[in-house]
Amino acid sequence: MIRLIFTATTIITSSSAIYFYIFHERLSKRVAHKSHLGTLSTATKSTNIESIPESVFSAEYFTLYDHVSKSVSRACLPSNEATEMLFKRLVRRNMTAFSRFPQALVLAMASKTPEQKESFKAGYLAALDFEVGNLVCGVYQVVVRRWDRVEFEIKMETVDFVQARLAISFEESSQEGNVVFCSETVMWKRADEGRKMPLERPVLRWMHETAAWWLMDSGVRYLVDLEG
């Protein structure tokens, strides 16, 4: 019986691993993505993440940068709403979806203050305009808000040697008739810091990629479905 249970568990675990591997591979083909590990160069600085301190763009810091985007024809999106309003819908929907992820459930259990606990609730997220100071899912605090972007500082008390940002934005090309929605994550630490940042760990990096890619892909499909 023990051998049977062990065999069944092994089969289920292997099947799950294969499924999620295939899921990750399929997602990678539905979005545009790139990453960078090392010194955050001036080339990467063109991403326009405004809240990254100038000093981070030097050899004094070791950084991890991830970028995912998805382009959609403006004609496929609701014509009765401005793109900046659709963008706000996208951010609300994606952060609400993220609040149900395993990563967010862990953050919710670690929340201590009423403000942190409230920041996971669907009603709270659905009404947010993402103004500077707003807290989302316990650790994401808005530090930059423009009509075409939201930047969050990621507050990680358990790894206080790391600083991080999440930026969600869009760019509209009237000439090509497309809208490109984008999500960027950057983490940095001092170059002489030997401890690993969370996203330097393969499993956490894989989970992050899968979540970011799925949120971008499904978020844009959510906006397209609004037209229907």
UniProtKB/TrEMBL annotation:
Q: What is this protein called?
A: Uncharacterized protein
Organism, by scientific name, is Penicillium nalgiovense
